[in-house]
């Protein structure tokens, strides 16, 4: 087997650090699993042993690789990591979408992916430039949710819109015209929930696209964290289905 490299965006593979993310990778997409790395400090623990047995049963090579784990996770308590093939998916033509416009924080992106899966929104579009979807920090923050979602990148929003012109657009903005509860109540399916960059939000032009949505909050803060906003929007738009 070739020597594994420290993660870089240009690689054709990435890592799912942690026992649970690795387990989710193996469960959801075993065909993408290339090998399982385990720590010598935990190879006999119940969690690692169970994961290793499942990996071997699926034909995935298991190897003790302490140094590789240290490079991947940048911490001492990472006891396993699945090496997996990077791959994007086609989004559902008639499903609800979450659209992330230039997301820049790996922790936020991972948390958003987990929230999307939790609320049954399995299609996520990412508009470039954006943080690396396959960065191990994103994978870990998602707790493996990435592997149960359909995620695809687009070079700009126009490309996404051209591919899904039938979707009703709901851009979330600080200047949104309709409160989130009302927008969700009257939502037209299939819909796209659109969220902007952590620092700058969506460009003003998005206010003219579809129905702009406002999440009301107190004047004590200037805005909500992106992952929090996505969680609120996802809950509001899916709770009545």
From TrEMBL:
InterPro entries: Alpha/beta_knot_MTases (IPR029028), rRNA_Methyltransferase (IPR051259), SpoU_MeTrfase (IPR001537), tRNA_m1G_MTases_N (IPR029026)
Keywords: Methyltransferase, Transferase
Domain tRNA/rRNA methyltransferase SpoU type: 97-235
GO molecular function annotation: RNA binding; RNA methyltransferase activity
Top-level taxon: Bacteria
Signal peptide: none
Pfam family, one: SpoU_methylase
Entry-linked CDD domains: SpoU-like_family (cd18082)
Protein name: TrmH family RNA methyltransferase
Organism per entry: Candidatus Onthenecus intestinigallinarum
